[in-house]
């Protein structure tokens, strides 16, 4: 079945209702767009430390780099790992490492600030 047939294929769905199935996954143009976007974001990441090189804006630099890294990871996960088109339960399973990372960060922050709070 060609991609055009797959995207517009109409079939029976158990109960006699007709419905249209949508293609599972991105097109070649989507891949190219995401690849170019990732390249642009990488160039921005390289430029951030130069633009925000002063000591007083160190926190802004770190925040921007974290936002860019998270954004790039989301693009890779959603499009190249096809998570955008998966079932919700599979998306939650794929996010388990992120949940674990967040838990590790919270534990490290608690440890770092434990003595300063008491």
Comma- or semicolon-separated keywords:
118 residues; mainly alpha; two-stranded antiparallel ribbon; 5 helices; flat; disordered N terminus
The counted number of beta strands is: 2
Number of domains: 2
The quaternary structure here is single chain
Radius of gyration: 21 Å
Question: What is the mean predicted local confidence, pLDDT?
Answer: 81
* Count of helix runs: 5
Task: Provide an overview of this structure.
The protein starts with a helix and ends with a helix. The protein has helices at residues 3-8, 28-51, 58-80, 88-94, 96-117; strands spanning 10-12, 18-20. The model is unreliable at 3-14 (pLDDT under 50). α2 runs antiparallel to α3. With 118 residues, it is mostly helical. It has two domains: 3-85; 86-118. The longest helix is centred in the middle third of the chain and has 24 residues, at 28-51.
């Amino acid at each position: 079945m060609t991609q055009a047939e797959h995207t517009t294929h109409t079939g029976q769905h158990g109960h006699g209702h007709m419905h249209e199935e949508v293609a599972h996954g991105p097109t070649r143009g989507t891949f190219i767009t995401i690849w170019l976007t990732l390249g642009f974001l990488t160039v921005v990441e390289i430029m951030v430390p130069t633009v925000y090189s002063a000591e007083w804006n160190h926190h802004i630099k770190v925040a921007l780099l974290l936002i860019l890294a998270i954004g790039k990871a989301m693009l890779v996960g959603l499009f190249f790992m096809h998570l955008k088109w998966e079932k919700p339960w599979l998306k939650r399973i794929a996010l388990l490492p992120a949940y674990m990372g967040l838990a590790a960060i919270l534990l490290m922050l608690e440890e770092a600030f434990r003595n300063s709070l008491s």
